[in-house]
Write a structure and sequence with these properties.
This protein is mainly β and 129 residues long. It contains no helices and eleven strands. Strands 2, 4, 5, 6, 9, 10 and 11 form a seven-stranded mixed sheet that branches. A four-stranded antiparallel sheet has the order 1-3-8-7, with no helix packed on it. A hairpin with a 4-residue loop joins strand 7 and strand 8 (78-83). The chain is globular, with a radius of gyration of 14 Å.
């Protein structure tokens, strides 16, 4: 049974930092691409970052580039999103998802193309002014 569980969200002031975690189980982490996505109230889900199968392909949305860093721990089977210099516009529910397709070597932050089959339940990040 494949499962992804996010944690680490919370309330932080503008300019602060948080580290989100995604615990994966039921599959070998090395065999999947992993993406982070977020959805703010009333807005469409958007891609934040991703890492492809094998860890060579890494991508970030322009809105977070230079502020967010994604990493994986294959021993602990954890995926992390370290967020610095948080802004109020970063407020959203953050999700991690797994890409099991043959294209996963090159990751994508497009959330609606069908490549991300497995999703966590999300963790809330709120950034105050």
């Amino acid at each position: 049974q494949l499962q992804l569980v996010e944690s680490g969200g919370g309330l932080v002031q503008s300019g602060g930092s948080l580290r989100l975690s995604c615990a994966v189980s039921g599959f070998t982490l090395d065999a999947y691409g992993i993406g982070w996505f977020r959805q703010a109230p009333g807005k469409e889900r958007e891609g934040v970052s991703c890492i492809g199968r094998g860890g060579v392909s890494i991508n970030y949305a322009d809105s977070v580039k230079g502020r967010f860093t994604m990493s994986r721990d294959h021993v602990k089977k954890m995926v992390y999103l370290q967020m610095y210099s948080l802004k109020p516009e970063d407020t959203a529910v953050y999700y991690c998802a797994a890409d099991r397709t043959l294209s996963a070597n090159v990751c994508t932050i497009e959330p609606n193309n069908g490549r991300y089959y497995y999703w966590g339940q999300g963790t809330q990040v709120t950034v105050s002014s």
